[in-house]
Amino acid sequence: MSGATASESPGRPGLKPPPDAALPVRHPGAPAPGELLGAHYDQCFGCGEGQPHGLHLESRAGDGVSVTAEFTVQTAHQGAPGLAHGGVLASALDETLGSLNWLLQVIAVTGRLETDFVRPVPVGTTLYLRAHCRAVAGRKIYSTAEGRIGAPDGPVAVRAEALFLEVKLNHFTDNGRPEEIQAAMSDPDQVKVARAFEVNP
Ligand SMILES: CCCCCCCC/C=C\CCCCCCCC(=O)SCCNC(=O)CCNC(=O)[C@H](O)C(C)(C)COP(=O)(O)OP(=O)(O)OC[C@H]1O[C@@H](n2cnc3c(N)ncnc32)[C@H](O)[C@@H]1OP(=O)(O)O
């Protein structure tokens, strides 16, 4: 097949920081290394406690702009019999990468996520994830992650490169379904979180 489209140009399009990109700066108010970050939203599929079949991923701050996280594959996460679904694994990487933005104290969403599936991941496996931010260029945040089987130094099962885009709070309030937005707004903790992240009002 020939005829790559503009979005398929070679060299990991959109995932390479431009030459003028800066190293990421950990925000002085970021949680200390070793601290759990906590769920940003109770109903989040990645980290929320209120999602019975969610990933219940708990991210912990690392040094610099890095995090670690653990995720145990449940029966609800299968694709092939006894194996994790690739989309679920991509979600675990996405959530881990997204939690880096807490350390930058920037509200950001995933624009691009490129995932390598290196090894099959059986149900019952605990995946040890780690992610770090590589560079920041304006609103663009370049990050990378990997997940290892069974232990922090276990075999690599998945890897990802991602581009996050900084957004304003109205990205959520303008686009989210009103029921959930109103419910989130009425939770004092959520408002606190939202305000804490509104760094450029
Ligand atoms: C009040 C209630 C309280 C709520 C609580 C608030 C606090 C919550 C805190 C934190 C929540 C975090 C949740 C984490 C969950 C895990 C992460 C996810 O799964 S996020 C969901 C999946 N992602 C999306 O749904 C994005 C959907 N996409 C969009 O909305 C837009 O496309 C967006 C924002 C990503 C970009 O749109 P543009 O209009 O802002 O920007 P443009 O002009 O298109 O792009 C800017 C630059 O970025 C490049 N760019 C954009 N998309 C790209 C792509 N896919 N690949 C490569 N480059 C891309 C462009 O080429 C451009 O580059 P050049 O400045 O010209 O150099």
What does this entry look like structurally?
There is one protein chain. The model is unreliable at 1-9 (pLDDT under 50). Helices cover 22% and strands 27% of the residues. The protein has 201 residues and is an alpha+beta fold. The longest helix has 19 residues, at 86-104. The termini are far apart. It has one domain: Hotdog Thioesterase (Thiol Ester Dehydrase, Chain A, Roll), CATH 3.10.129.10. The protein is globular. Strands 1-2-4-5-6-3 form a six-stranded antiparallel β-sheet, covered by helices on one side. The structure holds ligand 3VV. Ligand 3VV binds next to α1, β3, β6, α2 and α3.
Strand-helix topology:
Layout: E1 58-61, E2 66-72, H1 86-104, E3 108-117, E4 126-137, E5 140-149, E6 156-166, H2 170-175, H3 178-186, H4 188-197
Antiparallel strand pairs: 1-2, 2-4, 3-6, 4-5, 5-6
Q: What labels would you give this structure?
A:
201 residues; transit peptide; Thiol Ester Dehydrase, Chain A; binds ligand 3VV; globular; disordered N terminus; 6-stranded antiparallel beta sheet; alpha+beta; single chain
What is the strand arrangement across the widest sheet?
A: 1-2-4-5-6-3
Largest sheet: 6 strands, antiparallel
| Rg over C-alpha atoms, rounded to the nearest angstrom | 17 Å
User: Shape, please?
Assistant: globular
The CATH architecture would be Roll
CATH topology value: Thiol Ester Dehydrase, Chain A
Helix content: 10-25%
User: Kindly state the mean pLDDT as a whole number?
Assistant: 90
**Under the CATH scheme, which class?**
Alpha Beta
Low-confidence stretches: 1-9
Oligomeric nature of the chains? single chain
